[in-house]
Design a protein that fits this description.
The protein has 17 helices and 8 strands. It has helices at about 5-10, 35-40, 45-50, 55-65, 75-85, 100-110, 130-140, 145-170, 180-185, 195-210, 235-240, 250-255, 260-270, 275-290, 310-315, 330-345, 350-355; strands at about 25, 40-45, 90-95, 115-120, 220-225, 240-245, 295-300, 320-325. It has a 4-stranded parallel sheet with strand order 2-1-3-4. The radius of gyration is 20 Å and the shape is globular.
Length: about 350
């Protein structure tokens, strides 16, 4: 099938107007969505409906107009506006293991009459008793048994396996673009609120790319850090002859490791835990995917920016740290920095590049 046909199969946002509002639950970050589905609700990632809005910048501005600080992460402001715009009445907020501002945002929602349910990841991924207790509490708050959520996991595993294959085709067979990889993996945070529809669409996409010719770009990059807010990063990199073969956090949303239980699955999910768990995953991907360089995306005003120092200390590859504030295209200065970074990688001696080819 044609490239255009494949593009038509990329994930899309569900029409929230088709679902009873009382069945929609907004989530501020990836949580055990198996519990939400088992309880008969529809999880919707607030980040996704914010960034896919026709005017995401306007949503940031609207949040500032009603009092959210300008020096706060745009994702926080976008999530606030997404809840107000779509009239979402119930939120699950990750208050530990994600953005440090989520608890304050949850308090704003409470003050405005939005029902909120807190969820916390443990400080350590080895604290499985804490994680299990949080999942049990979430299930109880939604009126469903924890064991029913474990049964739902099996159905989601089959859907996620399709995304894992899309990811493999990105780096091993080079027939899926970095941007397509980003869109599919980032969408697994809520599987569009309907894992049946999502799985069917992903299967059709997988079929549509099977006859593609491999991408011939010479430079292979990894993008680590939270998903970028800038809208044209991947297309710009492609125009420079770059194939993005690794989207770190987006891949984590897809739960890439085999697991038998929800506790095992969400304790292996690296995003909520320390940087050292993430580094182990990144280093493995660098070797397996033959990566030449890393773009470390950091969001303005995000506490994770501090981790850049540790990343640079532990990853022995060229690294470009890219800091963006609001939605929109890359500005001239960012484009110049990216171009210089790619030229620097291209200038490396052939034998140095051969190490990761």
């Amino acid at each position: 099938m044609s490239q255009q046909h494949a593009n038509n199969l990329l994930p899309y946002l569900p029409d929230l107007g088709k679902f009873p509002k009382e069945k929609i639950i907004g989530i501020t970050s990836t949580i055990p969505i198996e519990i939400v589905f088992a309880a008969g609700y529809m999880p919707i990632d607030l980040n996704n409906i914010f960034i896919c809005d026709a005017s995401p910048n306007r949503m940031v501005e609207n949040a500032e107009l009603v009092g959210l600080p300008r020096n706060t992460c745009a994702w926080i402001k976008g999530m606030y506006s997404a809840v107000k715009k779509h009239g979402i009445q119930k939120i699950i907020s990750v208050i530990q293991g994600d953005c440090s501002n989520n608890q304050a945002l949850m308090e704003v929602f409470v003050s405005e009459g939005v029902k909120t349910i807190p969820f916390a990841y443990p400080h350590s991924k080895t604290d499985t008793s804490f994680l299990h207790a949080q999942m049990e509490a979430l299930a109880a708050s939604l009126g469903v048994s924890y064991m029913k959520a474990e049964e739902t996991k099996k159905r989601l595993d089959s859907v996620r396996s399709i995304i894992h294959e899309i990811d493999r085709l990105t780096w091993e067979e080079n027939i899926v673009t970095g941007e397509e990889n980003h869109l599919w993996t980032v969408s697994t945070s809520d599987v569009m609120g309907d894992f049946g529809v999502f799985g069917e669409l992903a299967g059709k996409f997988l079929e549509s790319v099977s006859r593609r010719e491999p991408i011939k770009h010479t430079i292979r990059l990894g993008v680590i850090g939270i998903p970028p807010i800038c809208e044209d990063l991947y297309s710009f990199l492609s125009s420079l002859g770059v194939h993005v073969v690794f989207n770190e956090i987006q891949r984590q949303f897809s739960m890439p490791y085999r697991s038998n239980t929800l506790v095992e699955q969400y304790s292996r999910y690296t995003y909520p835990y320390d940087i050292f768990s993430r580094l182990e995953d990144i280093q493995e991907a660098i070797q397996q995917r033959r990566i030449h360089g890393i773009i470390h995306y950091v969001q303005s005003f995000c506490h994770r920016h501090i981790q850049d120092k540790i990343i640079r200390k532990n990853i022995r590859l060229p690294i470009l740290t890219l800091d963006c504030d609001r939605p929109g295209p890359l500005d001239g200065a960012m484009r110049t920095r990216i171009e210089a970074f790619i030229e620097m990688i291209k200038s490396l001696k052939p034998e140095m590049l051969a190490v990761v080819k």
